[in-house]
Amino acid sequence: xxxxxxxxxxxxxxxxxxATVQAMTDTMCCRGPDAEGLWxxxxxxxxxxxxxxxxxxxSTQPMTVETDGRTAVVLTFCGELYNFVxxxxxxEGYGHHFRTRGDxxxxxxxxxQWGADMVTRFNGMFxxxxxxxRNQELLxxxxxxxxxxxxxxxxxxxxxxxxxxxAILANPLASARVAADGMCEVLDMVKTPEHAVFSGMAEVRPxxxxxxxxxxxxxxxxxxxxxxxxxxxxxxxxxxxxxxxDDTVARQLVADVPVGTLLSGGLDSSAVTALAAGTLLxxxxxPVRSFAVDFVGADEHFAPDAVRGDADSxxxxxxxxxxxxxxxxxxxxxxxxxxxxxxxxxxxATDLPPAFWGDMWPSLYLLFxxxxxxxxxxxxxxxxxxxxxxxxxxxxxxAVGASTFPWLTSGSARYFGGLSLLDRGLIEKLDIPAYRAMxxxxxxxEVPVLPGEPAxxxxxxxxxxxxxxxxxxxxxxxxxxxxxxxxLEVRVPFCDHRLVSYVFNVPFPMKTLDGRPKGxxxxxxxxxxxxxxxxxxxxxxxxxxxxGYEIALRAELTRVLADRDAPVLPLLDRDRVRRLLxxxxxxxxxxxxxxxxxxxxxxxxxxxxxxxxxxF
Length: 616
Fold this sequence. Notes:
Blueprint: E1 2-9, H1 18-26, E2 35-40, E3 44-50, E4 63-67, E5 70-81, H2 84-93, H3 104-114, E6 124-132, E7 137-142, E8 151-155, E9 158-162, H4 165-169, E10 177-179, H5 180-187, E11 202-203, E12 208-213, E13 216-221, H6 234-252, E14 259-262, H7 267-282, E15 289-295, H8 298-301, H9 313-322, E16 326-332, H10 334-337, H11 340-350, H12 360-372, E17 377-379, H13 384-388, H14 397-401, H15 424-430, H16 432-446, H17 455-484, E18 489-491, H18 497-504, H19 508-511, H20 519-524, H21 531-534, H22 547-562, H23 574-582, H24 595-610, E19 613-615
Parallel strand pairs: 10-19, 14-15, 14-17, 15-16, 17-18
Antiparallel strand pairs: 1-3, 1-9, 2-3, 4-5, 5-6, 6-7, 7-12, 8-9, 8-11, 12-13
Helix pairs in contact: 2-3, 6-7, 12-17, 22-24
């Protein structure tokens, strides 16, 4: 895993722009702590920071190919190809010779052999930039599910690009300006594909490639979710899902560094951990390393709420014992979660206010920091809920039938709300309901159609599409930014495009084989997991219930209010803020009661750190 940056300009000579490209590359240090490289040409300048995972001594980047003693192609690549061994053998059959053992050179040679069509052969998570010196063209490519981020910023003479916005903002040609639509993206849980919040900046859409020539920028889709008839019976479907999971987990365990799993004790992470344990055992590689996170006192003082019926730790321990894992528990307290240094690193990694999910951002950062002490790669259960229909809104008729994103309906919306302390005039000016309605309409128009599909099944296809193209992106972004902030590579087997394409077309009643959410996945894992885990109800990532966490947030907001120069003040309803600060805090602190606090504080820090100019 790595950080990539670049600058292409057809109107100026970039060969003397080392200092600027170095500054862009330096912003990616956390993504690539092991090595760095720069390549400068007349029209292109490329940077790279490396996290060594495969072929530790080789595969340095940017990687080049020369023709007649001159550079022909330059590659900067972030990610992993899980089928690079097969592709390497195929390319050798075409006469290509390799000097390294990793997947980066496979990508480079694949481009030489197939051009942009190479991407249709890739199985993996990746973001890459290829500068073709021969025809003066840049190719930007992102993986099918958008596991790895990639941003770009058109300029009068070309384009800037990078793994994260901060890389682009390090170039003087870019600015941190945010218009009304960008602020709507910040404040609402819609996650519009391609929208990057900062004006003028875009995100390469998952499953797409972007070409940059002297004539301009063009976009092309190479993969999307497609509607296809599902012909397999339930038993064959269960077997095929299991076969795909066996294969993708085995592929994603390949590395030249220590590998572990993230284990919550829920169905998804337990499935990945159990499959990884079996693969490692058969290969004689020893026990799987698993890691769980929870909060100090959670075992004794956990209080069930509307979405968390029980604590994670007992289930994680049981699964770890069941598969004989080398298990580590990371226990956090409110002092760690509110540590200014931790929160500063979280914001520096996200480039945007990480308000949704509140304390889950610093807790994930701290978990990953602990994991990085023992592993460089970790496998995660992310995306299983979106794929197999695990969230409550898949099974709530009112949410399914609503004319908006199902997670923003009654019963779920409060978990993604951060508007409670904002000025009413601001909210009216932005017209967030109209923005949400527009984005929802756009999303629905994309959903593939299966002729003759019953209305009820058609609607569930729409709900699945919304989750797999919008909601999961926020989770993948969160996992990428927090893991890369500590130089940890997180892999997500449930995002394997073969599995996603297959399960997307499984009729929803078959996904609930036993009448419960994710019944199909439960059936596929029936022989590997203990009954308690197989039967466990969906429980989200843990959130602290410690009142001390909210007390610390309130104290910080009090300090912000006292600072006349605090940039967030014009955006707040001060009467609402004071009423919140005066309200007694009794019992456990709930994450859905802290949304306004989190948003106000993160907005203030974000505007200061990035010198954001609000254009509305």
